């Protein structure tokens, strides 16, 4: 019996969300009196995988098959299922990402495991039961869910717990092969197109987000959002009306029918705060609202607020961040 | 081409969420239920693809009790040809996936579409479970879907970009924007929907694997601290020294 952690890597680095997943897995392993093994997917380096020891991982399995660099649903599922069988994993932990959801749902059927996604806290394992807290109603509520059966799969929501770093600890990295054949790569992507990451920070992984709404008046004013985001090392986002009229691409749309984010800092500029938008951001740790309308409902959900014109306030904030150095 | 579009019945996006006093169940009192917004992309795109091909059928499937029928009729009014309702409470993602897989297999559907996730449970699980149960590919979440004969080309969203994937039928895709502009029913659709077939079948398969023991609402905010717009830079100092987030 052990805990298997699925670690997503990109360009050699372990993704931040996967450092959190590794921490989660190590903590669950400690709760259950066992050790945590990781299986790495994507493009990784041995040195970075060994550093997963800092998150409490004992051993990392890595299949250097080059076709695993890009996400391939069937191949990833088989790889992780094979590792789970080899390790006798009773609990599998992955990120609540597009990869985690695609693989976790298939794995749950293949491994006859119960599955909880969007999990925000460590499990309660008293008396042999296994209960986790997960986000529901698009961020408007939480549900405690009890998982039955011998095997469990947990997809952990980003930024739900802080990755631990125990300096100096290293994990043993072992090469691993799931004996994948051409048939396992039948659904491999024909092409992978990455967005132009001018700001450099991806919204789903971001710790800080600067977001704009209709109050920004037009896409030509977005440099104000981008300047502040750049100064803060933040990702940019927008409300639904903004992506509906194509001022910004839809992948920046945060809300109930867009993406749900939970950064440490969310700065909303010219967004009134419709209930659908709040659902997508209300698990952010600190919310700042800038709006010229003091009655904007967003202020009720905010920690800090400025009642004022975004076109005057944003440059002042950017300047103040630069002054901090 | 036979399309199977799975829809779920969810509280309207503007709903203020509350629970029964024991926090065991969602409080449905006074709540307006709608077709899950993500599922509307799946439904509209299936209808568009059928129209473009000039042949085929679009069947909508819902796992739910009789109170979901108004939204099933709405899907028929938007343009689906017929509907199936599995008469059961949708206990969890696994249970729902079992129902969809059984019906997809029996009806030999070519393309099985659904929304990325439901806005109430937010599981984002059913697509992969159905694909695995049927042993067919799943593309999730799909932002674009085009068909040419039995081959589909899809754009799959990944963190920071997209993958172009092509698969042959049968396959499962979970849909999201900007796949299409979801349609709303017109008067003719509403009239014809009344007489379109809606078959009710019993649930099959194993029981659910997960159970909700309790719901909770997020903790309330302490209240907003307002900073004078003329002195906006003060906010940055507070974020560093008080909130410690920058």
From TrEMBL, chain A:
Q: Which UniProt keywords apply?
A: Electron transport, Transport
> Which SUPFAM superfamilies does the record cross-reference, listed alphabetically?
Adenine nucleotide alpha hydrolases-like, DHS-like NAD/FAD-binding domain
Q: Which Pfam families match?
A: ETF (PF01012), ETF_alpha (PF00766)
| Electron transfer flavoprotein alpha/beta-subunit N-terminal domain: residues covered | 3-192
Family to which this protein belongs: Belongs to the ETF alpha-subunit/FixB family.
- Please name the PANTHER family in this protein's record: ELECTRON TRANSFER FLAVOPROTEIN ALPHA (PTHR43153), ELECTRON TRANSFER FLAVOPROTEIN SUBUNIT ALPHA, MITOCHONDRIAL (PTHR43153:SF1)
Name of this chain's protein: Electron transfer flavoprotein subunit alpha/FixB family protein
Q: Which organism is it from?
A: Hymenobacter aranciens
TrEMBL record, chain B:
Highest taxon in the source lineage: Bacteria
SUPFAM superfamilies, sorted: Adenine nucleotide alpha hydrolases-like (SSF52402)
Do you know which Pfam families this protein is assigned to?
A: ETF
Q: Which UniProt keywords apply?
A: Electron transport, Transport
- Residue intervals of the Electron transfer flavoprotein alpha/beta-subunit N-terminal domain: 23-210
The record's Gene3D superfamilies line, in alphabetical order, gives:
HUPs
Q: Which InterPro entries match?
A: ETF_a/b_N (IPR014730), ETF_b (IPR012255), ETF_beta_N (IPR033948), Rossmann-like_a/b/a_fold (IPR014729)
Q: Which SMART domains match?
A: ETF
Identify this protein by name: Electron transfer flavoprotein subunit beta/FixA family protein
This protein's species is Hymenobacter aranciens
